[in-house]
Known about the structure:
Distance between the termini: 27 Å
Number of domains: 3
Radius of gyration: 22 Å
Domain TACO1/YebC-like second and third: 109-279
InterPro entries: Integrase-like_N, TACO1_YebC-like_2nd/3rd_dom, TACO1_YebC_N, Transcrip_reg_TACO1-like, Transcrip_reg_TACO1-like_dom3, YebC-like
Region (Disordered): 188-207
CATH class of the largest domain: Alpha Beta
Strand content: 15-25%
Family: Belongs to the TACO1 family.
Protein name: YebC-like protein
Largest sheet: 4 strands, antiparallel
CATH topology of the largest domain: Alpha-Beta Plaits
Amino acid sequence: KWTEALSSGHSAQMNLLAHGLKRYPMREWALCARGLAGHSKWHNTRHRKARQDSARGALYDRMGKELRTAVISKDEAAIADATAKAKKAGVPKEVIEKAVQRSRDRASLESVTYEGTLGSACFIIETLTEKRTRTAADVRAALKESGGVLGADGCASWAFRRMGLLQYDVPASSGGAEALLEAAMDAGAEDVDEREGDEEAGRERGAGDALRVDVWTETEQLSSIRETISRHGHDPSDEQLVYLPTEALQLDEHSLHSVECALEALEALDDVEEVWHNVAMGTANG
């Protein structure tokens, strides 16, 4: 349709083109206009780089959270451990230093959790703020944009279970996943899931074609289970306390779009650290 609009000069098609130019980068439009195949060298290189950038960004975010947790705890040994772990994972020195400094700047902030709903969808929003009233107003406005509301404690948390999550990346061909699953269950894990890992992230951590193993624990057992599994030679690539939905909510396309808009607005807020929801994304009914 885009190339037809370029050649036809038809007003409706030109309006489509004008609308598209606002939404997509010029390079994308140049590729479409020239009718380049989806398997061009540039296309493959660009998408491979996008995957690499995404994996690298996820790694930096994960390490940043660990550094922030350590700084907030004011435990210098924990800060040193988190710094060493980030270096070992390949995070550049300047990125680590900025993350530590930013965390120190935010260490005096208050952790506040908000709950909201949008129709049947439930949200738990974790924030760090120096001014509760401002953050509450921002969260309320972000939800309201898509038809949601900020509610009282308990209006959304009933739909979740607070759990500990340990994530491990192990080489797919090493048999390590089996040993890890056995160690986790022996340590008292609530559940263990195995799935295909991120190829680029696995290579960055030296795991090659990796399997991702998720180990679920009771919150109070997270540390003890991690230590037990570590004694079997496995260190987690990520560790966090999560809100796990007790049931994944299936929505129609319109409602799903509203939830996606709400998530985008919430995650854009500077004070927001995490947003948890109970919606099955990408699986609209009807």
